[in-house]
Amino acid sequence: MTTLASAPQETVSVAGPVATPRRRRGRRAGKVTAAGPLTYVLLGLTALVSVFPLYWTAVAASKTNAELAGTPPPFLPDADLFTNIGRAMEEAPIGLAIVNSVVVSSCITVGTVLCSTLAGFAFAKLRFRGNGALLALVVGTMMVPTQLAIIPLFILIAELQWVDHLQAVVLPTLVSAFGVFFMRQFLSQALPDELLEAARVDGASTLRTFWSVVVPVARPAMAVLAMLTFLTAWNDFFWPIIALTTDNPTVQVALAGLGGGYVPDTAVIMAGTLIGTLPVLVVFVVLGKQIVGGIMQGAVKG
Amino acid sequence: MTIASDDPRVAAAAAPPPAPPPGPPVRRRRRLTRNRWGYAYVAPFFVLFACFSLYPFLYTAWISLHEVRLSDIDGAEFVGLGNYTALLQNEFFWNAARNTLTIGVLSTVPQLAMALGLAHLLNYKLRGRTFYRVAMLMPYATSIAAATLVFAQLFGHDYGLINTLLEAVGFDRVDWESGTWTSQFAISVIVTWRWTGYNALIYLAAMQAIPGDLYEAATLDGASRWQQFLHVTIPALKPTILFTIVVSTIGAVQLFGEPLLFSGNGMTSGGVSNQYQTLGLLMYDQGWTNFHLGQAAATAWAMFLIILVVVGGYALLARRRARAER
Amino acid sequence: MATVTFDSATRMYPKADRPAVDNLDLEIGDGEFLVLVGPSGCGKSTSLRMLAGLEEIDAGSIRIGDRDVSDAPPKDRDIAMVFQNYALYPHMTVEQNMGFALKIAGVAKDEIGRRVAEAAKILDLEDYLLRRPKALSGGQRQRVAMGRAIVRNPQVFLMDEPLSNLDAKLRVQTRTQIAALQRRLAVTTVYVTHDQVEAMTMGDRVAVLRDGVLQQCDTPGALYERPANTFVAGFIGSPAMNVVTGPAVDGGVRLAGAVLPVPREKLARAAAGTGRVTVGFRPESLETAPPGEGVPVVVNVVEQLGSDAFLYATLGADDDGDVLHTADVVVRTEPRTAAAVGETVHLRVREDCLHVFDPVTQLRVD
Hints:
The structure holds three protein chains of three kinds. Chain A has helices spanning 2-18, 37-60, 65-68, 80-91, 94-125, 131-141, 147-159, 167-173, 177-190, 193-201, 206-235, 238-243, 251-258, 266-301. By secondary structure, chain A is mostly helical. Chain A has a domain at 101-255 and 279-301: MetI-like fold. The two termini of chain A are 49 Å apart. Chain B has 13 helices and two strands, in the order ααββααααααααααα. A two-stranded antiparallel sheet of chain B has the order 1-2. Chain B starts with 7 loop residues before the first helix and ends with a helix. Chain C folds into two domains: 4-235, P-loop containing nucleotide triphosphate hydrolases (Rossmann fold); 242-357, CATH 2.40.50.140. Helix content of chain C is 25%, strand content 31%. Chain C is built from nine helices and 20 strands. In chain C, the strands form four sheets. Chain C has a six-stranded mixed β-sheet, with helices on both faces. Chains A and B meet through helix 1, helix 2, helix 3, helix 5 and helix 6 of A and helix 2, helix 4, helix 5, helix 6 and helix 7 of B.
């Protein structure tokens, strides 16, 4: 009865915005409006700027300096690319570096995900004395610059005679405050207390609960953390160039050493950069969607 | 029902709900929630943390109070705050601090502003949205070393594509590397290139979490798209924006790889006249070129203090603003 | 099969100023269906969780059968629990969910299979054994949670608001199914709900809790007929019982200028200290009286439900300036003869349907 009276009024107020028709999916969170042409132009430009330097690496890797400076500049790579890649591999042990990077990044990833899941679960769901203070310590660690640790670490690995050994890179990098925090945030939301209680009533031991209930629930976040950790470890630069030399380098160390000759040949440097970056880029193109999803998911949780 | 307490304070406090009646004696029981397991779960992380983070942090503090040479660590000599006072009188430190600040501002402010804009664009209904997102994240997947080497080529004086293009439209070639502003600008471009897409995705995720009916309500209230962005999107994104600012700041203070490799021909300590030497680079130079560990340690602690001050400043600002809004 | 005994069981959360469960004494018979009911925060879930071993017992004890289980971990109590949100393991199939406890207990594989199949048959889940919880409807998930409890063949079933996530229609259906199933299996069951209709329809006995204290534990009929205090009176029954307080006068209590008759003995005992008396009468035990008789009320809203009509009316303030304020009264009447809004109706309470309470202690006076 009362609604009848207000109905015409409502129609009027709706009429204004409806004049510019939009499609909207009501139930979805967030604003969903179709993009205009300008949006596509701007996004296209951004995508171009994002990808172009990587493409340019391939072009520059196949040209001499003089060719690169020509007008108009070249925009397609040519067959010299492979020659230059060969030269780069001679000048720097890039093959070894890729193998090393795979080993180092894989170890760091497995270790970090494991430690982070264990600790993240404890911080999210277990009550123990001092858990708040310990978590604050973890979060605080994220603010500490890498620089603060490297001198003693260097002294340590020098004493252990680990310079140029891969464990010198792996072990210190396993400490990931971000990983612990990330898993904690995920598990405190995704793992209901009831599920743990159900497992207790079902008679599962704490360890059994962890493997049979917590890990399966945590798996999506573990995958995201693994991807991010691998990427970070692969690209890590500061500590590896201190702990390793070009005798047994990771990719980043090898790349840093590439330009060290007296007359730097840009094409060779670019060729080295290209093959050092290619493995990650291939993985990235294949798993891009998942990585994007993971970063966005992590952003909301964090 | 209620037993009056002798202490009037307790009696007053307990007045509305009846005070707990004296039940049977309370026994102390073995706690059923197995909380001691918590320590076992966090142990692997904290063992590593103690060995490779906490111990080094403290050791760095100790070193920063000593005169230590890399070649003779046992021969350390206590100098008190000498390394710190020396640092404050060191023009290289102030130069590096200035450079770090300039590059930090140049790389963080435009980066986050662009990321916000891009996130807004990505939030429209798009064809091929995955393509744009993945493309935008490619720089993030590129390592600092690779990115810097490529950009060093692009910014090269004689053969760089950027100078070639500048010349083509009638400008002079720019010697990016040797100028103070130009080199710092170029380094900021590298940082911005690598991180804009990543931050855009973080903003996008936060935007998608804003309930759609908020926009519908704003539309009914007659807000234009721009007004919706200002009055709905930005306020909802405030915590995320603060988060990215903090993360970018921490990264900016530690900036190291980009200036190290920017000359394009091996490692430098920040240009011929240190025109782009950052604090991270200075610290590396002190420790691994000059083998002066005490100085390097003091610089590292100074960097940490700068981060603490800046992040603390943000937190204060955010709190004050939040209070003002209330 | 077993009895369950709460013996002065108390739970005090750290830093809380009063116990969440306070000296709970409760005897649950073998095979009995006992419902714990009360408003949120009354301690009903905590009581159940103390019995499950998920919550510590700070004082007193709990026994299952003759065994004191106060310190036993959940797995040693021979209980099974149905959780409010079902707590199904998301990565396991229905079959694996139901068999998980048996698998941990080391039961042989074919025995597990047999028992899961049996439970699935009872619960009509046979077609869904290989699905994951995500692919099930709410009602099916609820049944899987039930199945997980049944498979274990425990001494006691614990159910924590198992129907609260179902829509209204399904809830009514499932409610009867659970009650029937429990009677068939004859397993001692403790069931927690905040819904008094659920409590009344399902329980052999119902225990009403408030602020951690047991108010009354009795059969549904007895709770309705003889509530022990005004809280139980107001909590059990829908719409709630009308409870009003007024000055005691000769022969009854004065309300809105009229006198509602109260038996002399009860009146004397209830009004002994204060000269006032609290009375309760259910909407369904009111009838209209001719003008001049009964208590006058003014009708504010009329709710037509088809089978019944409810009048929401105001009991006027007492005319000689007594402290009595106006009170809202709900009346059930015949839909056809319902009064109109604004009309004054005179009410009287059917014989033997008036509840009398002490205005200070709020306890029933008999």
